[in-house]
Amino acid sequence: MVQDDAAAPVRPGLVGQLVRFVIVGGFSAIVDLSVYFLGLHLGLSTHVARALSFIAGTTTAYALNRRWAFQVTGGARRAGSFALLYGTTFFLILGVNALALLVLPESSWRITLAWAISQGLGTAWNFVMLRLVVFRH
Question: What is the similarity comment for this entry (predicted)?
Answer without folding.
Answer: Belongs to the GtrA family.
